[in-house]
Amino acid sequence: MTRGVWAAPGRVNIIGEHTDYNGGYALPIALPQVVRCAAATETDGRVRVTSRQHPGERIDVAVAELGRASVAGWARYPLGVVYEFQRRGHGIPGVTLELDGAVPIGAGLSSSAAVECAVALALRDLFDLPVRVPELIDIARTAENDYVGAPTGTLDQSAAMLCTAGHALFLDFGKGDHEQVAFDLAGAGLELLVVDTDTPHRLVDGEYARRRQQCEAAATALGVTTLREVADPRAVDTLVDPLLRRRARHVVTENARVLAVADALHTGADPRTIGPVLTVAHASLRDDFEVSTPQLDTAVTTALAAGALGARMVGGGFGGSMVALTERGAAEPIAEEVEKRFRACGFAAPKWFVALPSPGARRIS
């Protein structure tokens, strides 16, 4: 029996929401919070999965039955990864997976991708499979799309696998390219505040899929394969359907915002200059893509009023977290102002932390 422990991080996206499945751009960082997967080889043809976040639940499924397994909820993420390896011809004779996650669940910080990538890396290493990182990313994404039923792009899995400490990751989904971009917040005297609004989202509930369908319809109406091909926002004004026009405008302008932020970081500009871009991005997600919530809007407006340099919702939306760029030492008092405002509004108490650009998935023992 071979054993080991692997870890994959959550992520926070500096800029670039709902651009991945439109062939566009994004700029995430990995979080210090990770999902750990303690894994061991077995030879009995079964997959056994437990999670410290779901005590008392033990999943035990035959590898050969994974395609027909009726298991629901959290366990479909790791089981989907095992199934996808098997489906692609990478035999898994049996495995035990013990999960323990510190990435907040449902907070828009990619806890699901962290699970998928930790499991994918563990399976590759445990069974010495000839699978390179791009395929690991695709295996994890396919598991989420097809086995779980969430029609995401590859942003989250790419961030979990490819991010490095001290850097943001520039992703070009149209070309399949990526590049590390130095993002030294401490050196610039800055902090990146993440506020979890405690309004969990579920990307399998249908609204996410509808946004993707609307983007595809907008691309078809504009005569392009993906909205990434539309560089001039004025082209979006030719769309007759006002709903499709709003959806496309967000994607086209968001791609431009990613490129602007990446260029600023590349050229050594003061990172403070990206703050207003984050705020504009929130307005676009709120008004054109319509994926924000009262809690997220309140967190953003409160953070800005308390001195944040820029703030926006992060992740797929419909709940989750806000990210704010602040001066060093300002994250805590800004978070406290958000907490006070949430109490006044009768919202659930938010949770917060300061994010640091951290390493991607790796074996830790």
Describe this entry's structure for a reader.
The chain has 365 residues and is α+β, with helices and mostly antiparallel strands. The protein has 2 domains: 3-179, Ribosomal Protein S5, domain 2, CATH 3.30.230.10; 184-355, 2-Layer Sandwich (Alpha-Beta Plaits). It is 36% helix and 24% strand. The chain is built from 9 helices and 12 strands. Strands 1, 2, 3, 4, 5, 6, 7 and 12 form an 8-stranded mixed beta sheet that branches. A 4-stranded antiparallel beta sheet has the order 9-10-8-11. Helix 3 packs antiparallel against helix 4 (155-162), helix 5 (207-222) crosses helix 6 and helix 8 crosses helix 9 (331-345). The longest helix is centred in the last third of the chain and has 25 residues, at 242-266. 51% of the residues are buried. The model has no long low-confidence stretch (mean pLDDT 96).
How are the secondary structure elements laid out?
Elements lengths: L2 E13 L9 E17 L4 E6 L6 E5 L13 H12 L7 E7 L9 H16 L6 H16 L6 H8 L4 E6 L4 E6 L7 E7 L10 H16 L19 H25 L8 H13 L6 H12 L4 E5 L6 E7 L3 H15 L5 E5 L6 E2 L2
Parallel strand pairs: 3-5
Antiparallel strand pairs: 1-2, 1-12, 2-5, 2-6, 3-4, 6-7, 8-10, 8-11, 9-10
Helix pairs in contact: 1-2, 1-3, 2-3, 2-4, 3-4, 5-6, 6-7, 8-9
Family: Belongs to the GHMP kinase family. GalK subfamily.
Organism: Nocardia otitidiscaviarum
GO molecular function, one term: galactokinase activity
